[in-house]
Amino acid sequence: MKKLSQVAKVVSIGGALVFGSLSANAASISFSYDAATDSSGLTSQYIDPVTGGLPGYFIETFDQDTNFSGFPGSTAYNDPGFDQDCAVNSVNGGPAGVLVTPPSSNVGVRQGSVSNVAAAPANDDTCFAYLTNNGSGSASFTFDYSQLLAANADTGITYLGFYWGSVDRYNDFNFYSGGNLVSSITGNSLLNALGGSAGNQTNPGSNVYVNIDFSFAEQFDRLVINTSGVAGEFDNIVVGLSQRPVLASSPGSNALLLLGLAAIGLRLRRKK
């Protein structure tokens, strides 16, 4: 994969883009990306929907072509007409152990843009997910990674990346640990920082790949996406797991660490 662009600006979690109660070991946000090889626009520098990536990272693409082997994913949130194409790959019962708990009336998975419904992220011709308040109030979409972490002892989620399409000021991403809010990133602050225009479907400042690196002390177990409008669109969610740091190491412990990382190498590749 060829990295096409990287914004040099790295912002502390406590800075202009992200707000939350964090310790001095704050997380950081950056906007480096690779061009996805499956025509889904932007993806993480660590993993691609087709070619895979580094051990310890896995990707949610919302496409059936990248489901885990032997597990079809969920089509419960698909818009009509996309049951053969789209799915939430990593949900309840799958090997990734991710729990997804939205009200289905507020969440959709589809391809292509529909006026007043959802706009595909720029250059994304594959399936993507969107969250809508259906014209009133607010709505949430939760990815709960607690089972994944419980199945991989002494690990934590220290990286999360996602492609955020046509960013609006009424969308935000919130990170929780044990029920406590760790941090959040808002569409309003991102647009202000990057000079994007709200809802723009082509502007690079409004269609960005967001990378958030957490210290182990600030790692999270639940992602909650919120919107108070129509709609919030996203794709290519990449999660990175890290082993808990140890104070001292030996050749034997280093070998165990490598085996542990290999065991959680939840990489996805497109089916042939």
Main sheet record: 8 strands, antiparallel
Helical content (DSSP H or I, runs of 4+): under 10%
Overall number of strands: 19
Shape descriptor: globular
Head-to-tail CA distance between termini:
19 Å
Give the mean pLDDT. 80
Q: Poorly predicted ranges (pLDDT <50, ≥5 residues)?
A: 1-25, 256-272
SSE run: EEEEEEEEEEEEEHEEEHEEEH
Into which percentage range does the β-strand content fall?
25-35%
Strand and helix map with partners:
Layout: E1 3-5, E2 11-12, E3 18-19, E4 28-30, E5 33-35, E6 42-43, E7 47-48, E8 52-53, E9 57-60, E10 99-100, E11 107-110, E12 128-132, E13 139-144, H1 146-151, E14 155-165, E15 171-177, E16 180-186, H2 187-194, E17 208-213, E18 222-227, E19 230-243, H3 251-263
Task: Write up this protein.
10% of the residues lie in helices and 33% in strands. With 272 residues, it is mainly β. The strands form four sheets. Strands 2, 4, 9, 11, 12, 14, 17 and 19 form an eight-stranded antiparallel beta sheet that branches. The protein is globular. The two termini are 19 Å apart. Residues 1-25 and 256-272 have low confidence and may be disordered.
Key structural traits:
mainly beta; eight-stranded antiparallel β-sheet; 3 helices; 19 strands; 10% helix
Provide a short characterization of the protein structure.
By secondary structure, the chain is mainly β. It contains 3 helices and 19 strands.
